[in-house]
Every structure is written in structure tokens, then in C-alpha cells.
Specification:
Elements (H helix, E strand, L loop, with lengths): L3 H10 L3 H10 L4 E2 H8 L3 H13 L3 E6 L2 E6 L2 H4 L2 H11 L3 H16 L7 E3 L13 E3 L2
Antiparallel strand pairs: 1-3, 2-3, 4-5
Helix pairs in contact: 3-7
């Protein structure tokens, strides 16, 4: 049985439009944070913060693969969340925002939004000396 504290955590996790949109995407399977960032057009730090909130609420779990972090819903059967996830799936079905997110998700998966680009050193800047030890990822 779910405790009052856990129930409160679930509903706090659901209490934000961006987190609801993230949960909607994760209903379709595991996603890299890059894909979620692309679909929702949010910054990496904003996506990470919301996903961490969902993780602490007990709704999402993650796994690392190199530099990438993949997110998925917790096992609904083992956690007793199956009725909640089924309710959310039906609630999301009629809203245009969620449908647009699915269109963008299909595009992200097709185009490979999650492809990490090669990391290169910053070039020498004229009149400023060289920049060493710093690296940027160029997309």
C-alpha cells in the first residue's frame, strides 16, 4: 500500500506542466535526456532538474551509458503505479500539446536528436592567447 508521504511525492511530481510532458513522452519508452530536451525545447539543465524531481518522486528511473543518461518510468507493476500511468495515458490523449510532443518525438528519433558530436578543443583566439584545458561540444 502507498504511504501518504509517497502519494504526496507522486502528486508533487505531477504538479508541473513540463514534468507532465516528460512523463507523457516516457510512457512510450526509455529516452535519452537529449531527446526530451529536443522535444520540449528546454535547456539541458532545466530538463535534468525536472527529471531529477521525477526520479526523487519515485516516478522515473535512469541509467548511464557513457556521457548519456537514459530515463524511463519505474516498473508500474512492481511499484503499484500501473493505474496512475493508465490514467495519465488517457488524460494525455486528448490534448494538442501532448500530440505535438509526439510528433516532435518521432522526428527526434528519426533524425537522431541524441547524437553526441565529437568534442574538440577551443581554437586559439586572436589577441587573447590560447585557451587550453577547456573543451566544448559543438553540434
Amino acid at each position: 500500500m502507498t504511504s501518504l508521504a509517497q502519494l504526496e511525492a507522486y502528486f508533487k511530481g505531477l504538479g508541473d506542466a513540463n514534468r507532465l510532458r516528460m512523463l507523457h513522452l516516457l510512457l512510450y519508452g526509455e529516452l535519452c535526456g537529449c531527446d526530451i530536451q529536443y522535444v520540449l525545447e528546454l535547456t539541458q539543465s532545466n530538463v535534468s532538474r525536472h527529471l531529477t524531481y521525477l526520479k526523487h518522486a519515485g516516478l522515473v528511473t535512469d541509467r548511464r551509458e557513457g556521457l548519456r543518461v537514459f530515463y524511463r518510468l519505474v516498473d508500474a507493476g512492481a511499484s503499484g503505479l500501473k493505474p496512475l500511468f493508465e490514467f495519465l495515458r488517457s488524460a494525455f490523449a486528448g490534448d494538442g500539446i501532448f500530440q505535438n510532443d509526439l510528433v516532435r518525438l518521432r522526428r527526434a528519433v528519426k533524425e537522431g536528436a541524441c547524437q553526441m558530436q565529437q568534442i574538440r578543443s577551443l581554437p586559439r583566439l586572436p589577441g587573447r592567447g590560447s585557451v587550453t584545458g577547456r573543451r566544448l561540444a559543438f553540434r
